[in-house]
Predict the structure.
Amino acid sequence: MVRRVRAGKSMRSVAAELGVSVGQVAFWVQRAEGKRLERVNFSNRSPGRSVAWNRLDAQLEQRILELRTDLREHSILGEYGADAIQQALLAERRTNIPSRASINRVLARHGLQDATRRSRRPAPPRGWYLPAVAAEQAELDSFDIIEDLKIKDGPLTSILTGTSLHGGLVDAWALGEASTSLILPRLIERWQREGLPEYAQFDNGTQFQGAHQWPDAIGRISRLCLALQIIPVFAPPREPGFQNAIESFNALWQTKVWQRYHFVDLAQLQAASARYTASHRARNVQRRDSAPRRRAYPNHFKLNLNAKPSGTMIFLRRSDDSNHVHLLGRSFELPEYWKHRLTRCEVDLHANQIRFFALRRKDPASQPLLVSVPYHREHKPFKGQL
């Protein structure tokens, strides 16, 4: 094309004749400008090196492969990975010993890495440990406490937070102290306003679960849930994942409210929190509309703490070294093969029994019954604060 342009043809006609763009013809004409055609480099390769400057020498790469084979067959320790190969090269008093990463790249290029990568399984569905919640047929409310936030020149305060797993209905109340007497009316207020979920989840703090020093003790929060036909669920101690929904909201609230403004008193903090939760709810209105329906709060309901508890309570627990799980101040034995494993313990106060179900994150849909044991709880007058 350069020869034809030099013969007097226009670039446009040469481009049309050869089926290329005018720009391409102009590119090669400019490259050949002022030069004889036999001295023009018409190669389209970039001017860089064909081999990276820091590529290992071919002989050194071959030596790495030989050392791996030799170490695998004759090493007393049986080690033939990158660390062992690097030590062998040092023993040969070589200079410019390659790094561990470089040796691993050599082994990977030749397919000589034995280690298998960790298999990543998909995360289980939200609320996977409760089949109805995982199937989005029931709603679960989670509650937690952010403790000991210090208002400058003011008191320590605690924040009671709540959220629904599917609907994203959030709440945050600034309390002077995290006591059950202050938590109880907030739960009633929320459920009167939003309706009742099928499940309510808490951690194992005494504010939620009640006293731990007496066996078979059922606290005020659990009695409220049972009276409203809500199943209380208590997360396993020191287990990540089960409180993700509420912990995520806790972190969000602290970032967007607590760390963002300066508060002089509890009332100002509560006002800022209320504005934030209202905006958060407005943004999640579509999520709330697609969530499972909530039951209406019963008219003229009055909590009677002395009434005999009836219904179901759920404790999520992990068995110990002796394949026992601990709940309600008692210890229950599971089958020998379910040691150090997660279990859903359903305490049926109506049927007087506890059912233990197997839980596995890698197979969340399979939750077989492990064992069912009788459980008789003697009804006694409530001794706590009414």
